Amino acid sequence: MDFVKDMRAKARSMQKRLVLPEGTEPRTVKAARILADESLAASVVLLGKESEIEAIAEQQGVHLEGIAIINPHIDKELDAYAHEYFELRKHKGMTEEQAKIDITDPLRWGSMMVRMGAADVSVAGAENTTGDVLRSGLAIIGTVPGLKTASSCFVMQTADPAWGKEGNLIFSDCAVIPDPTAEQLADIAESAAQSCREFLGVEPVVALMSFSTKGSAKHDDVTKVQTAVEILKGRKPNFVFDGELQADAALVPSVTDKKAPGSPVKGRVNTLIFPDLGAGNIGYKLVQRLGKAEAFGPFLQGFAKPISDLSRGASVDDIVTTAAVTLSRAK
Ligand code: ACO
């Protein structure tokens, strides 16, 4: 399995519509050219003032043929999008007048295009923070019906095919929720299971991890994971899961036998749920650096429609890959 190749092929076959809100950001403009040239999307839209985008494109030696430009300030949808934004935010004191100003923010406009069906996916974050990308998505796109929590996952490609699906595993949440509640952890597990199906193409086998296995330690942080497992059981999701498990009890069958005999996930785990963002973020970076694994992501999950956040250090190639992965998730 070659994750990047597979996702690019899927995006090419699906031909969905992409909006890149950071239309005046040089790496984004270059990525738009590649996405269009490689036919990874049915359409690619850059947001911003036409003259500014053209100037950046010229500086970067990129032509804009086949790439659309939308300037929210003068677009024909301005009133309709502003009204929709007002409706979404009026419970927070938003006025019609303010909505018309706020919706021209490219992140909000990109999310609104996805909400209103003018685009299938939005990808940003090359120059905006994760928090800002998330907030615009949360306010405008919202979460999948039935889930209250948006979160993220990484696809970790290890060199040992014994792990997960041919060496590939889902790690979650490593980028969004600093200290999830038990309810949020259960939501993260459900979203990660869905990500496992979409990204790895296999049925999820999920471990909710902790520094304790089946009550071996007592602490509020352990209780939180145990409660998340109980909440999940109550929801009767259609995937196999177990917890709370230490990482070795989750992954190594001989340790599972000792610490969690009879666990339904024994020897089959492909989706690892971390108890908080500290563990998740540090965990994926350790596996990436010390374990020499490839880390793809973070990919957002739990949103009603696909949006993605980029690292501000993202290369042009990273932007193309993230866009392809996000396009491959569109319905
Ligand atoms: N899922 C669903 N809704 C959420 C979530 C979530 N994960 N987080 C916040 N909300 C809701 C809030 O309830 C609120 O709703 P409301 O407007 O209806 O009241 C709204 O979204 C906005 O909430 P805020 O209070 O403004 O945002 P908050 O301070 O809770 O921050 C955020 C949320 C932006 C997601 C924050 O948790 C964050 O910045 N996370 C990113 C952490 C980070 O920086 N990671 C970087 C590491 S990335 C890497 O290394 C790969």
Polypeptide structure, described:
This protein is of the alpha/beta class and 331 residues long. It folds into two domains: 3-142 and 304-327, 3-Layer(aba) Sandwich (Rossmann fold), CATH 3.40.50.10950; 151-296, Rossmann fold (3-Layer(aba) Sandwich), CATH 3.40.50.10750. It is built from 13 helices and eleven strands. It has helices at residues 3-14, 26-37, 50-60, 78-89, 96-102, 106-115, 130-140, 182-200, 220-235, 247-251, 253-259, 277-289, 316-328, and strands spanning 17-20, 43-47, 68-70, 121-124, 151-157, 168-172, 205-209, 240-245, 271-273, 294-301, 307-309. A six-stranded mixed sheet has the order 8-7-9-6-5-10, sandwiched between helices. Strands 3-2-1-4-11 form a five-stranded parallel sheet, with helices on both faces. Helix 1 (3-14) packs across helix 13 (316-328) and helix 6 (106-115) packs parallel to helix 7 (130-140). It is globular, with a radius of gyration of 21 Å. The model has no long low-confidence stretch (mean pLDDT 96). The structure holds acetyl coenzyme *A. Acetyl coenzyme *A is lined by residues 130-131, 134-135, 138, 143, 149-151, 175-178, 281, 298.
Classify the secondary structure makeup into a structural class.
Answer: alpha/beta
CATH class of the largest domain: Alpha Beta
Strand content: 15-25%
The domain tally reads 2
Major sheet: arrangement of strands:
8-7-9-6-5-10
Fold-level CATH name of the largest domain? Rossmann fold
Task: Estimate the helix proportion, in percent.
Answer: 40-55%
Nearest-integer average pLDDT = 96
Largest beta sheet, briefly? Answer: 6 strands, mixed
Number of strands: 11
Ligand catalogue = acetyl coenzyme *A
Shape: globular
Low-confidence segments, given as residue ranges, are none
- List the helices and strands in order: HEHEHEHHHEHEEHEHEHHEHEEH
Individual helix count: 13
